[in-house]
Specification:
Structural class: mainly alpha
Shape: elongated
Mean pLDDT: 86
Number of helices: 4
Order of helices and strands: HHHH
Radius of gyration: 20 Å
Low-confidence stretches: none
Distance between the termini: 51 Å
Largest sheet: none
Helix content: 40-55%
C-alpha cells in the first residue's frame, strides 16, 4: 500500500502558550506591467494635482500615495480603498481632477475590483 501526501497552503505548528498570529514570509505576486505603468503615471499626476485640492484633499493624497505606489506590498483591497480615496479628492478639484478619476477607474478595472 502506498501513501501519497500532498500539502497545499500554510503548515502551522503551535508549541507552548501565548501564541499570536502567523508570520507570512511569502513575497507579493509580481504586478502586471500594464497595471504598474498606470499606477506610476497616476502617482505622478496626483503629485501635480495636490496643489489644486483643499488641504484635506492634499492630506488624503499624501496618506494614499505610499499605499498606491507600485512597489508597496499591500493587499489589493487596501490599494483599492486608497485609489477610491484619491479619486474622491480629485473629484473636488473639478476639471483638473477628471483625468485622475478616469485613470483610477481604469486602474480599478485592471485590478479586477470594478
Amino acid at each position: 500500500m502506498t501513501s501519497e501526501n500532498f500539502h497545499l497552503g500554510d503548515n502551522v505548528n503551535v508549541y507552548g502558550t501565548n501564541n499570536v498570529g502567523i508570520v507570512r514570509n511569502a513575497a507579493p505576486a509580481a504586478m502586471d506591467p500594464e497595471l504598474r505603468s498606470a499606477i506610476a503615471t497616476l502617482t505622478t499626476q496626483l503629485r501635480d494635482l495636490r496643489a489644486e485640492v483643499s488641504p484635506l484633499g492634499a492630506q488624503t493624497i499624501d496618506e494614499s500615495l505610499p499605499v498606491i505606489a507600485p512597489d508597496s506590498a499591500v493587499q489589493r483591497q487596501v490599494r483599492a480603498r486608497a485609489l477610491m480615496a484619491v479619486a474622491g479628492a480629485a473629484a473636488t478639484a473639478g476639471a483638473p481632477g477628471v483625468p485622475i478619476v478616469e485613470m483610477v477607474n481604469g486602474i480599478l478595472q485592471l485590478m479586477g475590483v470594478q
